[in-house]
Amino acid sequence: MTPENNIPEASYALLASGANFSCEVLQALQQQHYLPELLILPEYPPAQKLPAADREILSTSPQRRLLQQAQDIEIAYAPASQQASCASLIEQYAIDFLLVACWPYLIDSILIASACKGALNMHPSLLPDFRGPNPVEQQLDCQQCRFGVSLHLLNRHFDQGDIIAQTELRDLDRPPDRSGLEHRCAVLGTELFIAAVRQHEQGWKPFRQPV
User: Fold this and answer.
1) Helices (H), 32-169
2) Is residue 209, in this structure, part of any structural domain at all?
3) CATH of the domain at 86
4) DSSP H helices in the chain
5) 207 located within any domain
6) Are strands 57-58 and 118-123 parallel, antiparallel or unpaired?
7) Quick one: pLDDT band at residue 47, thresholds 50, 70, 90?
8) How many domains in the chain?
């Protein structure tokens, strides 16, 4: 666990869909004591925060768990048609980094460019293998593959940006369990993200993915 006095000073916004991997990523970030300045969701759920004394969130959306985890985090929304407005909010908060963990559509270049220092995606596979949605499920359906997590720069193509870092999962149970894989990818991916934030001032050394 990252000591609290060793938390990176850079601010970031987490773009998350409410899928299980998103929830695991937010939980891992909380355990590292490195919370996002903003939690950005892709849809407007019918959710309402109750008075602070109750600390309960009512929601009928699949994002319920994510919202429950985000009690002390400012929440914003960025549906596909409102990405320019979200970019303005990112600039208003002077957010250093965007971190994406499961997002249902391509992120517009105006939103990518809104972060002061960089926009990154945490993808639970060893890219370029298993791009696109449901990479963990794809890997589980594959008879022989290596499991891992990649951290890459966002661009205007799904999961094709230059890779900042990636790591392979070791000592897996056979057959591996989906929820366990997502948990381990989230933990390792969070470590990669925090390391990347710390290394930014010294300069990243990304490498290009095969197309």
Assistant:
1) 64-69, 83-92, 109-112, 135-141
2) no
3) 3.40.50.170
4) 20-31, 64-69, 83-92, 109-112, 135-141, 178-199
5) no
6) unpaired
7) very low
8) 1
